[in-house]
């Protein structure tokens, strides 16, 4: 790692700008007018980075390379020395975190405008401070020539998940959004492809902001919930309009627990990214990341077979025997496969296989 590599990486961040506002030797990097990284030409062996208060002290205890900064607030900044016990990948992650933490602390209006400017031209974006549910808003919204309409909110008063389950979310803490789009020439019997795409895109978004040792513990619980170990991190709902055997329009609603720390409902196992990591995340940057992942997958970058392979590789309880319950009672089985139509195939120890549609079997 060296000062030029850090400079180049900082400038890959969307909207990042560099300048010498203080003197001729102190190079600063800003996003939306706020500093997230500082390089000194007189000390080319380190970088000073913005950091979430909950993470700053923890990083100093983990790495000799991370220390209290000389000229910045020690609560919200760290100095990171190159070529010590923090490898290059770690330093790049800390730069990304500094960028996100800076965005998170800018006014919400600026974050919304920043996200809107970074979406594809064929995507319309609407943010609501409060609504009944983003899915209701989506169902009442026309595409009007756009490929996709994205709707997010700070607070849902009637948010719901699959089969009407209530989705709890604290005002302004989590990511709640819906989108409507035309899948274009996708037959109705292949609608589970869209569920796989959304689940993979969301799981990859969550993994991208977590430490490497935590990423493998993010999984997709059939059909499309996102789990961290045995706790629910996100859920989604898909509804389709069918015309002449093809999907003419899809409404996708997603709730991702981001910065909520206390859950008061009777939901049995909620968790958030903040509870997992110990610090908060920029909601709108996560939304941009999801849209990027979703767009890539929707553009057929992966064949259907490859998409299915990725989905299976990320499945909750994959490759080990667990307890399930159906109408006949509890039994032990291993996940064998998921059919193209979304049916879950479980294999019992005697080799018998059983097929289930959604809600016909319960994970015990």
Number of domains as seen in the coordinates: 3
How many individual helices?
A: 10
CATH topology of the largest domain: the name is: BirA Bifunctional Protein, domain 2
Strand content: 25-35%
Q: How would you characterize the largest beta sheet?
A: 7 strands, mixed
Strand order of the largest sheet: 7-8-9-13-12-11-10
Question: What's the multimeric state?
Answer: single chain
Mean pLDDT: 93
Radius of gyration: 22 Å
* Element order: H for helix, E for strand: HEEEEHEEHHEHEEHHEEEEHHHEEEEE
Share of helical residues: 25-40%
CATH class of the largest domain: Alpha Beta
Distance between the termini: 48 Å
Total number of beta strands:
18
Compact description:
This protein is α+β, with helices and mostly antiparallel strands and 364 residues long. The chain has ten helices and 18 strands. It has helices at residues 3-10, 53-62, 88-104, 108-117, 134-139, 192-208, 212-215, 273-277, 283-298, 304-313, and strands spanning 17-19, 26-31, 34-40, 43-50, 66-67, 77-81, 123-131, 148-156, 175-181, 218-221, 225-228, 231-243, 246-256, 322-326, 329-338, 344-347, 353-356, 362-363.
């Amino acid at each position: 790692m060296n000062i030029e590599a850090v400079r180049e990486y900082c400038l890959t961040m969307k909207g990042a700008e560099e300048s010498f506002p203080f003197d001729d030797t102190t190079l600063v990097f800003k996003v939306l007018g706020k500093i997230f990284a500082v390089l000194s030409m007189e000390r080319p062996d380190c970088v000073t980075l913005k950091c979430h208060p909950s993470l700053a002290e923890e990083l100093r205890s983990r790495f000799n390379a991370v220390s209290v900064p000389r000229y910045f607030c020690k609560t919200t900044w760290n100095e990171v020395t190159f070529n010590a016990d923090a490898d290059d990948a770690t330093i790049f992650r800390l730069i990304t975190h500094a960028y996100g933490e800076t965005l998170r602390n800018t006014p919400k209006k600026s974050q919304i405008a920043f996200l809107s400017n970074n979406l594809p031209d064929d995507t319309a974006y609407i943010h609501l401070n409060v609504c009944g549910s983003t899915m209701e808003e989506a169902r009442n919204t026309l595409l009007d020539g756009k490929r996709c309409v994205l709707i997010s909110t700070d607070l849902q008063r009637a948010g719901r998940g699959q089969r009407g389950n209530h989705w709890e979310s604290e005002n302004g803490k989590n990511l709640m959004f819906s989108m409507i789009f035309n899948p274009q020439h996708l037959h109705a019997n292949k609608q589970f492809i869209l569920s796989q795409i959304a689940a993979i895109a969301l799981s990859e978004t969550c993994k991208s902001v977590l430490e490497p040792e935590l990423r493998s513990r993010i999984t997709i619980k059939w059909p499309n919930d996102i789990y961290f170990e045995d706790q629910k991190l996100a859920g989604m709902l898909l509804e389709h309009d069918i015309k002449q055997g093809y999907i003419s329009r899809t409404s996708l609603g997603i709730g991702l627990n981001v910065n909520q720390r206390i859950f008061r409902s009777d939901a049995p196992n909620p968790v958030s990214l903040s509870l997992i990591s110990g610090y908060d995340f920029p909601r709108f940057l996560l939304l941009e990341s999801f849209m990027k992942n979703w767009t890539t997958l929707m553009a057929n970058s992966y064949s259907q077979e490859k998409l299915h392979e990725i989905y299976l590789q990320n499945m909750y309880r994959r490759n080990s025997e667990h307890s399930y319950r159906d109408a006949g009672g509890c039994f032990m089985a291993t996940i064998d496969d998921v059919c193209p139509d979304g049916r879950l195939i479980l294999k019992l120890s005697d080799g018998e296989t059983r097929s289930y549609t959604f809600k016909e079997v319960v994970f015990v």
